[in-house]
Description:
The protein is mainly β. Helix content is 12%, strand content 43%.
Amino acid sequence: MTKFFAKTAAAALIASAIVAPAMAQNASGTIQLKGNVALSCTIAVQDLNQSLALKAGETAKTVGSVTETCNSGSGYKITLASANAGKLKSGNFTIDYSVNYDGQGGALTSQMVIDRATAQFGKKSDLKVTIAASDQYIAGDYADTVTVTIAAK
Length: 153
């Protein structure tokens, strides 16, 4: 009986090896994707070439249009600066004015900084000027230059 049992066991073992499916071997590999987006902040300033009615005064007169684009994920800053500290000048004579840019306003006696928390693409804002009316302004040609700057944070 032992020979019979040994033959039966051997036959069962051979049969199971033939019937059992072969185990597939798994293999994998990786492909790494890389790319870069360069930081880009641009500003397009359009001077509307407006003449201001100084004696009559101006209220929120649009004098320029600005288009901001900056892809900085942490946002950016717009800075407005006056060459004459927020005054129109003619020789030694001056006339004060105030500005409004995208809802923020005031005199440009120092730089005005508008903080943008996120990236913006093609954001348009107008620069508006307000000047008090007066019959006591001294005759002359008055001017100032406002510089608008964009910088990533």
